[in-house]
Design brief:
heterodimer; A: alpha+beta; Immunoglobulin-like; MetI-like fold; four-stranded antiparallel sheet; 8 strands; B: mainly alpha; two-stranded antiparallel ribbon; 18 helices; 75% helix
Chain lengths: 414, 404
């Protein structure tokens, strides 16, 4: 038997093959690096920065120009006003310089000491501005000619203002503030509990429901293909359609579920399914199970149909009962796919954002870590804290996937 | 456990549970289908079921039990003591009919669940077969209801008018006499809410995503599956790792970068970003397929003087057409259903994708039937596509341990 391992070495042909491989992979690597690796690095960077939504743009100098006063005949006076401000409330803008052209036919009466005039060209060095700086620069002018159509429009020449501001993002000052804030937040324990409950119960529930559904459809009967397609509906339909349907169905005032329960006498008052504390988390988890059982169902069914049926015949001969056959023959064969599915679904459920966001918006004790990222970064506009939560999620994820790769290797060896 | 191995214990127990299942489903079905006030009585259902479950194994002729159950259920229902109690306005005939149908359903299905179960001692096989038949029947009812009710409610609500919904939130019967008026919500969505344009945006964004994904992932997958280079194994693992990174973690910096570069609020930005979310999955699925193709076929091509690239184009790709179809379908589904990025990056209603458009309908000023009509419009294309090509998708999904 010849060696099956690839030839080792660094001969020209192998080099050529490796070159081709990297060439084929290059577009993917570049794309993924741009949209996955870079943002991940950015998240790490930001999580150590005291930064809010407003800090996204670096501080800059802003000028707004207008003409005050009427001007029609030679000798009429008016004022050109530059309203100037620093866009940022706290950070400094340095070396601010304003350059503008005074319209033809106007001559400057008095000049601010910081400005110089050469011809019609105005050039002002305005120095450094503290955060929140505001001022109005006034240049009185006198008309040298007649302006029958009113004063000349100063905005026709755009006032060019420059200055360098250092973005909070760019500096080298780091802080652990974000992490401290995240872990110290009063509701951090509740967030953690929601995440753990949602992930564990959702994963196991979807797995058990999927196993049950797969057992139902393992035998062949008429209409099986149709049912198999139907059972996949919750997974294939857009999450937004499924979530809004559930919200409509379980609405406390106009939802059918409440109307049904009231009419059947199971409850006296309408139940606020997605708005009350322990119930909302349970409902969100049930939704997760409902939406993702099809996935486990599909995988488990595929595995079941690949199981060799001979052993079941042998078991029949030996008088094994149906439950025994399931417990001692089927389940061990499904163990591999079940454990891989468990880890994979665990990670995905842990990562899930859209479903909870659409169902409850993270209210009523359903705020998981992923919803917390959104809540911190966009609702409270504290991007640093949002990034810190994202880093925590990423760390958990790394731990989970290490486990997953171990399990996968184990599964491959079986 | 021993006590359960007797026909006169197991029969009534199982059938009592089954009878409650049937009666409750019938009541829900009647309520939603006709809007009639129905109230199932668990106690009566349990008792009636227990009696049926006791009679079936003791009487040889199952058909006699069924006829008796049908008549008794109908009588009890008319008298107002049946397993389903109706409100005042329901006529006697309808009550009798509903009772009879339920009785027949319970007794006939029970006869099949118990089959030839003996009245006295059961052996382990007979007992377990009965339990399994009960669980199977129960499972079919529960799963079908769990899937059909939400989707049924979605469609039925979209066909209703505001008044009808307020009058009776349980009545989902379709009033066919309204004719085209049934589709009013849809008409308004397309006329006033620009849904035609959202549909088109979603469609071309998804198609472009599929094309770009294939363009990147086919060569990548081929390289990982076939070519030998240092770091191949690590690369294959990091693909999997990357497709486990949650979108919400990436969404934040992407939002910031897009805000700074002006790509936010543009369809171009969406088209740039969607493929990156799907390339790792596609690459992972495709490399599995490529590995399954015998190397010898390709080597024969190489021997005959083809270059690597022409081998891929002329031999590997044609052999992989089913895989390409399933990956395309799956990527289309992901792009079509994508919500988070569209929601965060698009603000301008003229650029919305369909899911973003539906999200816009979720406001207190817009009636619910419009929201549901929007949900139907978003679901129907992807469900139809999927039902038509289900086999492809299934094989694709199971091949690539998939994201969701």
């Amino acid at each position: 038997m010849a060696r099956t391992a690839p030839p080792q070495g660094n001969k020209p042909l192998q080099k050529q093959e490796a070159r081709l491989a990297w060439g084929l992979l290059l577009p993917t690597i570049v794309g993924v690096a741009l949209i996955v690796i870079l943002p991940l690095l950015a998240i790490f960077w930001i999580s150590f920065k005291p930064v809010t939504l407003g800090d996204l743009r670096p501080p800059s100098a802003i000028a707004n120009e207008r003409m005050r006063g009427d001007m029609a005949l030679p000798g009429d006076t008016a004022t050109i006003e530059y309203r100037l401000r620093n866009s940022h409330a706290e950070s400094q803008v340095t070396d601010v310089r304003l350059v503008d052209t005074i319209p033809q036919g106007l001559s400057v009466v008095a000049l601010d000491p910081r400005c110089e005039l050469s011809g019609q060209q105005l050039d002002c060095n305005l120095g450094n501005w503290e955060g929140g700086h505001r001022e109005t620069l006034k240049i009185p002018v006198v008309a040298q000619m007649e302006f029958p159509q009113g004063p000349p429009r100063v905005r026709e020449t755009i006032a060019d203002i420059t200055g360098s501001g250092k973005s909070v993002l760019a500096g080298l000052d780091f802080t652990f503030q974000n992490f401290v804030a995240v872990f110290n937040a009063r509701d951090f324990l509740s967030v953690l509990w929601a995440t753990v409950f949602y992930t564990v119960v959702g994963t196991i529930g979807a797995l058990v429901a999927g196993l049950f559904a797969a057992l139902l459809l393992d035998k062949s009967f008429r209409g099986r293909g149709f049912l198999r397609g139907l059972f996949l509906f919750p997974y294939v339909a857009p999450v937004i359609a499924a979530a809004f349907t559930w919200v409509t169905l379980f609405d406390p005032f106009s939802g059918s579920a409440n109307a049904l329960l009231l009419q059947m006498g199971y409850t006296e008052t309408p139940i606020n399914f997605f708005g009350k504390r322990p119930l909302a988390l349970i409902m969100v988890t049930v939704f997760e199970i409902w939406r993702y059982f099809p996935l486990s169902f599909l995988f488990i069914l595929a595995r079941m149909q690949a199981v060799d049926k001979d052993i079941f015949e042998a078991a029949d001969m030996d008088g094994a009962s149906p439950f025994q056959k399931f417990r001692y023959l089927m389940l061990p064969q499904l163990f591999g796919i079940l454990s891989v599915l468990f880890l994979l679904r665990f990670i995905w459920t842990f990562n899930k954002f859209d479903d909870i966001f659409l169902l409850t918006g993270g209210n009523a004790g359903t705020r998981t870590l992923t919803v917390n990222v959104y809540e911190q970064a966009f609702a409270i506009a504290d991007i640093g804290a949002g990034a810190a939560v994202a880093v925590v999620i990423f760390m958990c994820l790394l731990a989970f996937s290490t486990l997953y790769f171990r399990a996968l290797r184990h599964e491959e060896e079986l | 456990m021993k006590v359960l191995y007797r026909g006169y214990v197991t029969g009534p127990l199982l059938i009592a549970l089954w009878s409650v299942t049937v009666v409750v489903s019938a009541a829900v079905l009647l309520s939603l289908g006709t809007g009639l006030p129905v109230r199932p009585s668990s106690l009566v259902s349990l008792l009636a079921g227990a009696v049926v479950g006791l009679l079936l194994p003791s009487v040889q002729r199952h058909i006699a039990v069924s006829i008796a159950a049908t008549v008794v259920f109908a009588l009890l229902t008319v008298l107002g003591m049946g397993p389903m109690q109706f409100g005042e306005e329901v006529g006697t005939l309808s009550e009798a009919l509903a009772g009879a149908v339920t009785g027949a359903a319970v007794s006939l299905s029970s006869a099949r669940i118990l089959a030839d179960m003996p009245f006295q001692n059961l052996d382990r096989h007979e007992f377990e077969h009965c339990v399994i038949r009960f669980l199977t029947a129960f499972g079919f009812v529960v799963f079908t209801a769990a899937v059909l009710i939400p989707f049924g409610v979605m469609v039925a609500t979209s066909l209703k008018s505001q008044q009808e919904l307020l009058q009776n939130p349980l009545d989902y019967s379709i009033d066919l006499s309204r004719g085209w008026g049934l589709l009013r919500s849809y008409k308004e969505l397309f006329a006033d809410f620009n849904f035609g344009s959202y549909l088109w945006t979603s469609f071309y964004v998804s198609v472009i995503t599929v094309l770009v994904t294939l363009l990147f992932s086919v060569p990548g997958a081929y390289a990982v599956a076939r070519l030998r280079f240092a770091g191949r194994r690590q690369f294959s693992q990091s693909i999997l790792l990357i497709y486990m990174v949650p979108m919400i973690v990436l969404a934040l910096p992407i939002y910031m970068a897009f805000s700074l570069t002006g790509l936010r609020n543009s369809v171009l930005g969406i088209i740039l970003i969607y493929p990156v979310t799907t390339i790792p999955v596609a690459l992972y699925i495709l490399q599995g397929y490529f590995r399954g193709i015998p190397v010898e076929i390709e080597e024969a091509g190489l021997m005959d003087g083809l270059g690597r690239l022409s081998v891929i184009r002329r031999i590997t790709l044609p052999l992989c057409l089913p895989a390409l179809a399933s990956v395309s379908l799956y990527v289309f589904m992901i792009a079509w259903n994508e919500f988070l990025l569209a929601f965060m990056l698009l603000d301008d209603p003229s650029k919305f994708t369909l899911t973003r458009g539906v999200a816009m309908l979720n406001s207190s000023e817009i009636p619910r039937q419009h929201l549901m009509a929007g949900a139907v419009i978003a679901s129907v294309p992807v469900l139809a596509l999927f039902m038509g090509l289900e086999r492809f998708l299934t094989s694709g999904l199971t091949a690539g341990s998939v994201k969701g």
